[in-house]
Amino acid sequence: MALPGLFLALLFFKVKDYKTVPLVRGAGEDKGAGAEVMTRADIFKAFLRTYSLILNNLAFAANVFVTTALLSRLPTYFHRMDGTPMSEAGPKSGLILFMAIIGAPLGGFPADRWILHTPRARMWFPALSSTLSACLLFMALTFADGTLRYVMLLVVGTAIILFVPAAVAVTQDVVHPGLRAVSLSLNVVIRHSLGSPLGPLFVGMVSDSYGISTAMKILPLFTLLAGVLFLLGSFFYERDLQRVDKVAVELE
Asked: What is the largest CA-CA distance in the chain?
């Protein structure tokens, strides 16, 4: 991934950027008088009172908890449950998570269409896709086996990542335009603190005591939790959206 990533990074030198947005409140799009410079305390409070953002970030972490657990533990699962050699179990598992390359952009289209009818769809769609993924994952790990289970897991690999475009958009929608980079960075820190390291650890610990099958069957509960958190966040989304300062964004 490093070389393609470097190539794309170099292309960003050609991308138009917008001017740094002043961290002021009450200026409006016309930059009128009465603007108040935001202090560090103001910024801290702004993030703490934006409940839709907090719930969105926690839901993101819950989904990442599951995806990283699947990525690291599926090879062991296939090896122990199906007798698949580890040399084959790794690529077999990798293909499931590779389906994210389809699911990630695919999730943006229905979310963008739905939001034309109601702003809350920004969080309703992740809630729906996370809940659907939880059901599919549970059925695949509980009732299916062999080829059917693998096909269902491929579908899960696509569905479980559908939430990303809308969830990332939330991190930009409900904060001051000058804090968008900070907001996304905060999201990354939360999901890779509460999600990435804990998912594989959790499955490993449960597997040691109760077996890999039981450990994996618990994972859908965390995806379902993500769906519930997204849904709860939707009740605050419109309010948080209306409180965002309207600041003109200009291209350099």
From this structure: 71
Q: What predicted TM-score, i.e. pTM, was given to this entire model?
A: 0.91
CA pair distance 100, 34, nearest whole angstrom? 47
Pair 230, 56: CB distance under 8 Å: yes
Backbone angles phi, psi at 36, to 5 degrees: -120, 125
Looking up tokens 């970030």 gives 57
Q: Token pair of 237, please?
A: 């989304």
Please report, to the nearest 10 degrees, the dihedral formed by the alpha carbons of residues 168, 173, 179, 183 taken in order.
-30
Residue ranges and CATH numbers for the domains of the chain are 51-242 (1.20.1250.20)
Q: How far is CA 128 from CA 60, 134, 141, 228, 240, in A?
A: 14, 10, 20, 9, 21
As averages over each run of 10 residues, the pLDDT of the chain (252 residues) reads 89 86 73 74 94 98 97 95 93 92 93 95 97 97 94 96 97 94 96 95 97 97 98 97 86 77
Closest C-alpha among 240, 201, 238, 239 to residue 222? 201
